[in-house]
Amino acid sequence: MELTSIFIFLNMGGPELILVGLAVLLFFGGKKLPELMKGLGKGIKEFKEAQKDVTEQITKGLEDDTK
Fold it and tell me: pLDDT tens digit string along 49-65?
């Protein structure tokens, strides 16, 4: 859902996404692309985990303050 809103903001449709995908493929090559996507996935996963940890710490701190 968030990704869709980004594409709407950038006004990117199907043809534009295909063009960007082809440009990335030409720039990085077929062998390097899976490594790049794997690294991107790990980075997103770590970011979400850190965001969850910070949210838990904030809510725990607020609960401690109210007691």
Answer: 999 999 999 888 877 76
- Whole-angstrom Cα distance, residue 10 to residue 64? 42
Q: Are residues 43 and 62 in the same domain?
A: yes
Interaxial angle between packed helices 32-66 and 14-28, expressed in degrees from 0 to 180 and rounded to the nearest 10 = 110
- In a 13 Å sphere around the CA of 16, the CA atoms on its Cβ side amount to 6
pLDDT > 90: percent of the chain: 27
Judge if pTM exceeds 0.70. no
Domain that includes residue 62, residue range:
38-67
- Number of domains the chain is built from: 2
